[in-house]
Amino acid sequence: MSELTDLGVKAIRDGVAGGSFTAREVAEAFNAAVAEAADLNAFIVTTPDHALAAADAADAKRARGEDLGIMGGVPIGMKDLFATRGVQTTAASHILEGFTPQYESTVSQKLWDAGAGMLGKLNLDQFAMGSSNETSYFGNVSSPWKKNGTNAAMSPGGSSGGSSSAVAARIAPAATGTDTGGSIRQPAAFTGICGIKPTYGRCSRWGVVAFASSLDQAGPMARSVEDCAIMLEAMAGFDPKDATSLKLDVPQWEAGLSADLKGKKIGIPKEYRMDGTDEAILKSWEQGKEWLRDAGAEIVDISLPHTKYALPAYYIVAPAEASSNLARYDGVRYGLRDLPDGAGLQDMYAATRAAGFGDEVKRRILIGTYVLSAGFYDAYYTQAQKIRTLVSQDFEQAFGQCDAILAPTTPTASFPLGSLNEDPLTMYLNDVFAVPASLAGLPAMSVPAMVNDDGLPLGLQIVGKPFDEQGVLNTGLAIQQRAGFDAQPDKWW
After folding, report:
1. What total of structural domains would you count in the chain?
2. According to its UniProt record, which residues of this chain constitute the active site (predicted)?
């Protein structure tokens, strides 16, 4: 049944509903693939029984002639940032190792209600802080892709590297991700899959371990635009438990898919042509323009003048919010507790956090605490929030001239694990094209375009107007149909 693992969300759902195969057969095939691919280290915890139970429920519904749901019979990977009842949830951090929630995140519950099952909890950068999936307490995730002529382990991107690796390796048909400054789109680009960050507030943050609350947003990662549309439809919706949740009806994104862009204008931001961007990336961008012209769109030049300030502003705002959010991990209520002999309360706090947090998390807490401290708040944090407003205004003005924006997803293709560990600033630059849309809370998607001369995937990014996920998906579909991206990593695991 190995061919079942080549199927995506739509093909599995329709195949189960149509009786071509059973949901249990699908679950068994993916459970076996997950077990076989342990060398990728994509999963922290596997939950084969959860996948089989959901599959049996789907098969029983079909036997009774009942609706299976929009994700009926589809087993997925769940990023280990989403609380899952009775299943360890760690955010890939030692400080939460062994934490088993007695509640379910809103997004995961919506997916189970839609008929999906869980293959396991996916590895990530610790507390979603990283661009390479090398900060996890549970070890690095390897990309299934290799650079031509070398056997070096490549980065699957971050923070949703376990998700991107699992989907690209075909050990999960789809997975949840979260995107704070590009953590769905960048790993999707690195591994040749699709991933969409919806408008901030489309998907509930309740039950998702917080990094930066004004930026974090859940979204789907899958091998096609259609599969992302289906999964996003299942994940999205108003949640009264989340004060930032949008009280809007969930559109029928799958039914609304169309690759006909006649009458649409696609903006090309001149500021995204940055020094240091790979020539292959720029070539794929030019090709993307031609594909969209072929789909009927008009290509127009636009300006986003504050783009160069977006990344430094992000790396003030996000660590500041992280500093506040991670203060709850103190060794008192849950998670790790390190209590040295004769220690007082402050000693316990210090020992617990020193042992429980990794270097990158500590770095961002220190940055965040510094920029929020007396004497520096106005100089750094207030200024960064002003930049955030200007970035949002740039997009608002640009969307007066165009319907969507086309840009590269990343400045380079994937890189070998360990190659940027000594240079965090270069690592942060991986998010340079993704961060502006995050600061503005806009829907944005990465779609695979081509492979470079090293045999590594390159992605193109579409940024849309607020609440216009349909426009983003449609533009992505037009690229997907013309790119015909069907490259797969050679199986080495």
Report:
1. 1
2. 79 (charge relay system), 159 (charge relay system), 183 (acyl-ester intermediate)
Confidence bin at 2 (pLDDT 50/70/90): low
Could you tell me the two tokens for 405? Answer: 């924006």
Q: Per the domain annotation, does 113 fall within a domain? A: yes
Mean pLDDT of the region 67-81: 98
- The pLDDT score that the predictor gives to residue 334 is 84
In a domain, 348, yes or no: no
Which of these is catalytic: 10, 79, 197, 264?
79
Which is the catalytic residue, given 183, 204, 224, 245? Answer: 183
* Bond from prior residue into 159 cis (ω within 30 degrees of 0): yes
- What's the mean pLDDT in 454-461? 98
Domain carrying residue 64: 4-261+464-483
Question: Does 159 participate in catalysis according to the annotation?
Answer: yes
- pLDDT confidence of residue 1: 46
From 142, 159, 284, 323, the catalytic residue:
159
**Could you confirm whether 183 is annotated as catalytic?**
yes
pTM of the model: 0.96
In a domain, 284, yes or no: no
Q: Measuring CA to CA, which residue among 147, 93, 12, 167 is closest to residue 328?
A: 93
